[in-house]
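queue> pop job 88
queue> type: inverse folding (structure -> sequence)
queue> payload:
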């Protein structure tokens, strides 16, 4: 029972790390960044290649090599996230009317498909795995993910840049009048969200998932559901949603309906949205028409 609960919480913590990337970007820009799942996939490949090719894997680098590879992946993911924002989304922020809603969404899907195709060409479709000896124990996954989420919560609620992020989320024009530069805050949000995806990718890839071009789709879908269930735009909501999805997934896996795990997760999503459209910890916001 204790082992099951530990696995479920660890699974939920990893999902929450990825879900936080979705919820942070949505909270500031009201944009669902579907390319976020591919940032996770690319950062997983970066960590694997650095650890396996440059540092010699477990035999030469050991756990220290994995830590170095993770740091490189975090930087690469942050750079990729900022690049996606600059190339794909920045000019669309000035759009008005229906274009302001549809164009970024279509662009996000296009960037996601592009990154997936580029990954297939660059890394091939053959699944790759870290040395099993590099897999951290589940208690470490829980502690590491919890520490990262606690640091993020402190950043958003206890620092000046966190207050600036919340101000931009509430009213971009008013925040500009207060001396805040929304463009810089948006770039910072993409960088932090992408870095969280990189940490989640390494934890996933070392403990349970192989690295392949479609890796982001499977994990990213669960993370997106977690963000919506918890209340997209709410950091505590993403954490709660990830935990619930992790617990539900492990519970279903222990029954004869394990093949329907993803379907049951989406049933949970529908039920939550029927009862609370804004999510469990989300809040409805009136919008001008």
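queue> result:
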């Amino acid at each position: 029972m204790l082992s099951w609960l530990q696995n479920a919480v660890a699974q939920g913590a990893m999902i929450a790390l990825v879900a936080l990337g979705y919820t942070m970007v949505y909270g500031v820009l009201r944009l669902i960044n579907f390319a976020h799942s591919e940032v996770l996939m690319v950062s997983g490949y970066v960590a694997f290649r650095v650890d396996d090719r440059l540092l010699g894997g477990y035999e030469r680098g050991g756990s220290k090599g994995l830590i170095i590879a993770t740091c490189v992946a975090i930087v690469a993911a942050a750079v990729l996230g900022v690049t996606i924002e600059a190339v794909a989304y920045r000019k669309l922020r000035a759009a008005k009317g229906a274009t302001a809603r549809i164009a970024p969404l279509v662009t996000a899907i296009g960037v996601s498909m592009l990154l997936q195709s580029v990954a297939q060409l660059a890394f091939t479709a053959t699944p790759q795995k870290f040395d099993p000896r590099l897999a951290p124990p589940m208690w470490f996954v829980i502690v590491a993910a919890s520490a990262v989420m606690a640091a993020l919560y402190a950043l958003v609620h206890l620092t000046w840049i966190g207050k600036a992020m919340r101000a931009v989320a509430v009213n971009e024009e008013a925040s500009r009048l207060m001396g805040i530069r929304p463009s810089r805050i948006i770039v910072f949000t993409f960088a932090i969200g992408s870095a969280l995806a990189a940490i989640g990718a390494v934890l996933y890839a070392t403990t349970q998932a192989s690295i392949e071009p479609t890796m982001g789709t499977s994990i990213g879908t669960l993370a997106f559901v977690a963000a919506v269930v918890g209340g997209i735009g709410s950091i505590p909501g993403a954490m709660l949603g990830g935990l619930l999805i992790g617990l539900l997934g492990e519970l279903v896996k222990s029954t004869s309906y394990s093949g329907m795990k993803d379907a049951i997760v989406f049933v949970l999503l529908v039920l939550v949205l029927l009862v609370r459209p804004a999510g469990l910890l989300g809040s409805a916001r009136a919008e001008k028409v």
